[in-house]
Amino acid sequence: MPRPARPNSSPPQRPRKPRGDHRTRQPAHEYVLEVLPGLEAVAEGELGAVPLARDIRGLRFWYPGDPERLTRLRSVVAAYRVRAWDVPRPRGLLGHQQLGELTAFLAEVVRFGGHRSFRLAAAGRESSVMARLADELQAALNLPHDPEEGELLIRLRPQEDGPGWEVLARLTPRPLSARAWRVCNRGGGLNATIAYALHKLAGQRDEDRIFNPMSGSGTLLVERALLGPYDAMVGVDLDPAAVACARANLQAARREVEVAQVDALHTGLPARSFDLIVSDLPWGDAIGTHGGNAELYPAFLSEMHRLLSRQGRLVVLTHELRLFERLLREQDRWHARELFQVYSGGHHPKAYLLGKR
Ligand SMILES: C[S@@+](CC[C@H](N)C(=O)[O-])C[C@H]1O[C@@H](n2cnc3c(N)ncnc32)[C@H](O)[C@@H]1O
């Protein structure tokens, strides 16, 4: 008999479902969030602010509310509804009853997300069992199976804390990290969930005057503009194509932020113009060169020290870890702490928060 997935790490005495109170009379479903490795704590913080999310174990939880709320999580790559079946192998999902329940489970997700095709993700997805499952689901859901681009991403995996298998169905046709505002993309563009995390950890203050030097496609500008009020915000980039790209993204997000084609090291702005400087520096591979960065980074730190207010915060995301950490060791004008290291697209940049000594 299929049954809902047990919470991964909950002690045995815990109820499998959160107890209903007057606010949780709608049926709860279990969900799991996917995040970039390194951003788990940020996502847990964001999840903690979702009203009615219950029985939270890391990024797994029960939720009786409208799933639409979960698609607004900004630190999350994808949100999945999850259900487990007490079957020893995926073949068990082909049983008459199991298949009926699986179809109903997936159909509800499709009703919500409007997916137009599906794909399966599982170890051995080429196997004959997976091929049969794909055929059965194609007929039952009346959705085309597209193994590469299918919008309803269905993951099958063994339960972590039980003998069965669980099925995860992605709520949205595209990952949540693929923002609707991104109408222009550039090589070296930052994953938007990282931009969100940088702003959350830098601190979000209404009175901040914010500078985003080297703004590229404007990811950090848009994500901050969407977070809420600030006193002022400006981005600059040397490359006119980057400036146009950032402007297009800001326009798509319906946010007015000034972006100028200016050298971040020679803005001509007065000292202490900003309370928060957020930067995604050239990493020395896709953007910039390692040799160039050896000169750029110290000049950048020096100019940002001038532009930052006394109590201001400087956030730096970089993949030039050795260079940047050596520069920090060799200076005494900044205090610094690491915010996170994140794994994204084959890179593992670190984020630092600096303040003036
Ligand atoms: C890593 S990319 C930034 C990517 C950006 N966060 C995004 O999401 O698209 C670095 C950017 O720095 C710009 N850049 C390099 N040196 C600069 C300088 N001295 N002043 C302003 N922009 C500069 C490059 O043109 C490039 O667009």
Automatic annotation (TrEMBL):
Gene3D superfamilies: Vaccinia Virus protein VP39. SUPFAM superfamilies: S-adenosyl-L-methionine-dependent methyltransferases (SSF53335). It holds the Pfam family UPF0020. Residues 1-25 are annotated as: Disordered. Residues 1-13 have a biased composition (Pro residues). InterPro entries: RlmKL-like_Mtase, SAM-dependent_MTases_sf. Residues 179-349 form the Ribosomal RNA large subunit methyltransferase K/L-like methyltransferase domain. This is Ribosomal RNA large subunit methyltransferase K/L-like methyltransferase domain-containing protein.
